[in-house]
Structure formats: structure tokens, C-alpha cells
Design goal:
There is one protein chain. The protein has seven helices and twelve strands. The radius of gyration is 18 Å and the shape is globular. It has a seven-stranded mixed β-sheet. 42% of the residues are buried. The chain has one domain (3-274): Ribonuclease Z/Hydroxyacylglutathione hydrolase-like (Metallo-beta-lactamase, Chain A, 4-Layer Sandwich), CATH 3.60.15.10. It has helices at residues 45-57, 97-105, 107-117, 197-208, 225-239, 246-250, 258-274; strands at residues 3-8, 11-18, 23-32, 35-39, 62-66, 90-96, 132-134, 137-142, 153-159, 168-172, 177-181, 213-216. With 275 residues, the chain is of the alpha/beta class. A hairpin with a 2-residue loop joins strand 1 (3-8) and strand 2. Helix 4 packs antiparallel against helix 5 (225-239). Bound molecules: zinc ion. Zinc ion (ZN) binds at residues 71, 73-74, 182, 217-218. The site of zinc ion (ZN) has 6 residues, from loops.
Length: 275
């Protein structure tokens, strides 16, 4: 069953088990006065339903949906929001340019391949394309007249890449909160684009110094130490000499499914270095 947790004031995480994958998956809702931002929408509308109920209890004028990247487990449940607030709030969907292109061209294949193995995960899954896209990043500004932030609050969207080419994170400077998508994972993240790992590591190190709460898409909200640990892992991964015994010697301490992630990371970086 999905669980909503208010992890800090006006910021909620909804978490479900990602059945068959041994991990959980989360979506984050942030309420700025009469505006709501939802970061990621799961793999099907029924997972987002608890947030629809929450929105119906709040007074919401508009909803901003941000996709952290185009992977199937993060952006196929958006349709549920059309029932929110009596169907009246204005909904904007925001993503990186590449996320929109991928969703437009490849996502039907992804949905079908998941449906063959875990049909419930993608029940009524639907691609709703973003209407607002960006390349390097963008900033959304929200007024919060009754809060201590008289000048309003901004939500910064930062393009990083590395996990996938389109991976982004959302940072709220007033709250010192980083909603990190799949760019942060405990114990280790999954590398998809080795050429972007240095930029990714720099991003993690920078935000470790100005963040109090990190919200990954898979795993528990936690303090900024995870940013340093992920950065250190990525640095070590890039510096491995890749002799054949490395997979065995580096495995120690990791449990499934992160053992598989680590093996995948070693292999993808090794192939990239050889190329
Ligand atoms: Zn994911």
C-alpha cells in the first residue's frame, strides 16, 4: 500500500513498493500557498491516487508536474491528476527537452515490455507529454503571501545527466531541500551515461554543502551525507583499473538489487573506457 509522509512542512512523499524490482519508488508533492508541484508520477495513475485525495483537501489553483527523467517508473501516472480538485486546477507538465522527445518516440515500447512481466505496474499507464521544456535548467517562482518567505519561493530545476542523458534534480533554496530523482540512491546510483559522471559528481559535491534534506526517487528521504557517499562511489568507479577480478572484489557489502547495479556500472564504465 502507498504511504504519504510529510517529510517537512508542506512537502510530502508518497512511496510504493516497485513490485518485482526489490526497491520502492516515490513521488514528491510540495505545496506553495495555492500552488502544488509534483515531482514524478509513478508508472501508472492508481499509484498517484493518494496525492489526488490530498490535493482535494488542499485549496489548489494550479498543479505543476515535473518529470525527473523519462524512465517508465517515473512519469506514466499523470492522468490521475485530471481528477484532482474537482478537475478544475490548471495543470502544467515540465521536463527536459530530451525527456519529451523520448516519451514521444520510445515510451510505448517500454510500457509493453513491462506489461508482459508486471502488468499491474503499468495498468492504464499513459504518456502525457510535457508542454514546457528546457535544456540547461529552469526556475519556477511561487508566491507564498502567508509564509515567512515574503519574496516567494523558487524551485530550481537543474539538468545533470549521468543516470540518463535527461536526468534532472529539483532544488528549493528556501527549504534547503533537493528532490534528486534517480541522481541519488542509497547505497549507490545507476550509471547510464559514463561521459557525464564527472559533471554528476560535481553536482553531488556542490549540493552537499547547501542541502539539509535529500529526497531520492528510490529510498528514504535523508540528510546530505548521501550526496557525499554517492559522489565518492562515482569517483571510485571511474578510477577502477578494471582488471577482471574487480567485480568480485568491489562487491563486498552490497545486497541485491544493488549488487546488480554495481556490476552494471562497472561494465558500462569499462566498455566506455575501452571505446
Ligand atoms: Zn527509477
Amino acid at each position: 500500500m502507498g504511504k504519504i509522509e510529510e517529510v517537512c512542512r508542506n512537502l510530502y512523499c508518497l512511496t510504493w513498493p516497485l513490485e518485482g524490482y526489490g526497491v520502492s519508488v516515490s513521488s514528491t508533492l510540495i505545496k506553495f500557498s495555492h500552488h502544488v508541484v509534483i515531482v514524478d508520477t509513478f508508472s501508472a495513475p492508481h499509484y498517484l491516487q493518494p496525492f489526488v485525495q490530498l490535493i482535494n483537501e488542499l485549496e489548489v489553483r494550479d498543479i505543476w508536474v515535473v518529470y525527473t527523467h523519462s524512465d517508465w517508473d517515473h512519469c506514466l501516472g499523470t492522468r490521475a491528476l485530471w481528477d484532482a480538485g474537482g478537475g478544475s486546477p490548471h495543470i502544467n507538465i515540465v521536463s527536459h527537452d530530451l525527456t519529451r522527445s523520448y516519451l514521444k518516440t520510445h515510451n510505448a515500447d517500454d510500457i509493453e515490455s513491462i506489461r508482459e512481466v508486471h502488468p499491474e505496474l503499468v495498468r492504464n499507464a499513459e504518456v502525457l507529454l510535457p508542454s514546457i521544456t528546457f535544456r540547461d535548467g529552469m526556475v519556477l517562482h511561487f508566491d507564498e503571501p502567508n509564509s515567512r518567505f515574503k519574496d516567494g519561493t523558487s524551485l530550481e530545476i537543474i539538468h545533470v545527466g549521468g543516470h540518463t542523458k535527461d536526468s534532472i534534480a529539483c532544488y528549493i533554496p528556501n527549504y534547503r531541500v533537493l528532490v534528486a530523482g534517480d541522481l541519488v540512491e542509497d547505497p549507490i546510483p545507476m550509471v547510464g551515461e559514463p561521459s557525464e559522471v564527472i559533471k554528476w559528481t560535481e553536482f553531488l559535491e556542490f549540493y552537499a554543502s547547501c542541502t539539509d534534506l535529500v529526497i531520492p526517487s528510490h529510498g528514504r528521504p535523508q540528510g546530505p551525507e548521501i550526496l557525499k557517499r554517492n559522489a565518492m562511489y562515482l569517483e571510485e568507479l571511474m578510477n577502477l583499473p578494471f582488471i577482471s577480478s574487480d567485480v568480485e572484489t568491489c562487491d563486498s557489502g552490497l545486497l541485491q538489487p544493488y549488487l546488480d547495479t554495481h556490476k552494471h556500472n562497472i561494465e558500462i564504465v569499462r566498455r566506455w573506457k575501452e571505446y
